[in-house]
Every structure is written in structure tokens, then in C-alpha cells.
Automatic annotation (TrEMBL):
It holds the Pfam family Thaumatin. This is Thaumatin-like protein. It comes from the Eukaryota. Keywords: Signal.
Length: 241
């Protein structure tokens, strides 16, 4: 553990204050720096996470929202923005508006020691992720709380019309069909909002081929959203392999 990680840990424990039973261990195994982000904010004072760093975060007792990693962030004078996962607020700590897509989302619902968790590609994909609960037991099932992840290189299957590029034209992520094509069929809105009409499609199936444990369209429930009781911590790894 580097000194920066230790300092982060101390800062975070000071800031979060409220006792929580759940710790998130964020590990950045990407070859590049990422900036953690959460909506609603979890008050991370120093979201910058260099390659190879580990950050332990004591989560609030009750929290429901999304966590993701932003890439290639920088200040232009005083405005903070990122190539992917940008919050649009200009500040380093996201101030709630949803991020700019595409972004791989990690969704959680924390109620004391019971945590629901999923990897969602409903707003596309910007980098590989894994959620690994430590200990605990699965509610409504038997045995351990399963890993969920999306660790494959989505750029290989991203259809041309969903590719997101930076200002230099380089691939930075893959839009979901809903965000990229704005079609109610893929967003499961309007006439397509019922469970019968909201189905997988040729785009979501491409994601699913690579990432079987991730949710790939709005009503995707395969696998179900897992609910884990009494895990001591959740290892959240960016670029796990
Ligand atoms: C910084 O970026 C913001 C948002 O993209 C833009 O509105 C602003 O003009 C930029 N400022 C400078 C000094 O480049
Ligand atoms: C929804 O379906 C109805 C009946 O088929 C149709 O008249 C309407 O145009 C559709 N709305 C949209 C937004 O596609
Ligand atoms: C979780 O991360 C910690 C710290 O890196 C590590 O010691 C532990 O083995 C990991 N647990 C699992 C189940 O991978």
C-alpha cells in the first residue's frame, strides 16, 4: 500500500464519518489513471486513482446509485472534464447529473449489510470492470455471493455506428443501442416499455456474447441482480485481467 493510498484511506474515513458495515476496495489495474465517480456523490475528496493503486472506501449505511471510472480527465484552467464518464459539472467530484455516455456502470443498493449489485452496459462500455464480494451469502439463493464482471475487450465487437471516439478519432468506448440510436425499441420506452416488448436485440446480444454476467438492455435479468448479505467488503477492480 503506497503512502498516497494510506492518506486516501485516512481522509475517506474522516469524511464518511457515519459507521458503515460495507467497505469497497477500489483497485485500478488499468495501465492508465482513472478518476472514480459516483452518483449520488459519496464525497470522495480525491477520486484520482493511478495505475496500480488500491483505495479503501467505507460506504454509507444506505446508498443506492452508480459508480464508474472516468478516463483521460484534466482541468482546462478551472473546468474539469474527462474523455469518458464525464459528469458535466466541471468539478472533480461529480455533482449528481448522469455522466456522459458511454460508460460501464456499477450499480449498487446498500441497505446496511445487504447489498444488491450489478454491472450494467445499459449506457455502453468504457472500460473492463469486476465486482467481487468477499464473504457473505447470497439472499434468495444458496452459497456464496457471485462475481459479476465485464472484462473483455468490447472494442472488438462494437458496431461501427456505436463507436465513441475522442477528438483525435481514437476509440474510447461503445455506446449502448439506446444511447447511440435513440430508438424506443432499444431503450424500452413508449410502445416498448412492457416486459413482453422489451427484449434483447442484435446490439445487446453482442455485448452479452462477451459479458454474460453483465446486464445489456433495460430489462435484462439474466443473471438476476444479486443480493448479498454480510459480505465484509466488495473488491471493485478496473481492468481486472
Ligand atoms: C474549458 O472547457 C469548457 C467545457 O468544455 C469550455 O466551455 C471552456 O470554454 C473551456 N475553457 C478554456 C479556457 O478552454
Ligand atoms: C405505438 O403503437 C401505436 C399502435 O400500434 C401506434 O399508433 C403509435 O404510433 C406507436 N407509437 C410510437 C411512438 O411508435
Ligand atoms: C480483495 O482485495 C484484497 C486487497 O487487494 C485482496 O487481499 C483479496 O484477496 C481480494 N479478495 C478477493 C476475493 O479477491
Amino acid at each position: 500500500m503506497g503512502s498516497k493510498t494510506l492518506i486516501n484511506l485516512l481522509l475517506l474515513l474522516l469524511i464518511t464519518g457515519a459507521h458503515s458495515e460495507v467497505t469497497f476496495n477500489f483497485e485500478n489495474r488499468c495501465t492508465y489513471t482513472v478518476w472514480l465517480a459516483a452518483s449520488p456523490s459519496i464525497g470522495d475528496a480525491d477520486p484520482e486513482s493511478g495505475s496500480g493503486t488500491l483505495e479503501l472506501f467505507s460506504m454509507p449505511d444506505q446508498w443506492s446509485g452508480s459508480i464508474w471510472a472516468r478516463t483521460n480527465c484534466a482541468y482546462n484552467v478551472s473546468y474539469f472534464s474527462c474523455e469518458t464518464g464525464d459528469c458535466g459539472s466541471g468539478t472533480i467530484d461529480c455533482q449528481s447529473p448522469p455522466p456522459t455516455y458511454p460508460v460501464t456502470l456499477l450499480n449498487f443498493d446498500i441497505k446496511q449489510s445487504v447489498v444488491s449489485y450489478e454491472v450494467s452496459l445499459n449506457h455502453g462500455h468504457n472500460l473492463p470492470v469486476r465486482i467481487q464480494p468477499e464473504g457473505g451469502s447470497l439472499l434468495g439463493g444458496t452459497g456464496l455471493c457471485p462475481v459479476v464482471d465485464c472484462i473483455e475487450d468490447v472494442s472488438n465487437v462494437c458496431p461501427g455506428n456505436l463507436v465513441a471516439t475522442n477528438k483525435d478519432g481514437r476509440y474510447v468506448g461503445c455506446y449502448s443501442a439506446c444511447d447511440g440510436l435513440k430508438d424506443p425499441r432499444y431503450c424500452c420506452t413508449g410502445n416498448y416499455s412492457s416486459p413482453q416488448a422489451c427484449q434483447s436485440n442484435e446490439y445487446s446480444q453482442k455485448f452479452k456474447q462477451l459479458c454474460k454476467l453483465a446486464h445489456t438492455y433495460p430489462r435484462d435479468n439474466d443473471p438476476p441482480v444479486y443480493r448479498c448479505s454480510r459480505a465484509t467488503s466488495y473488491n471493485i477492480t478496473f481492468c481486472p485481467s
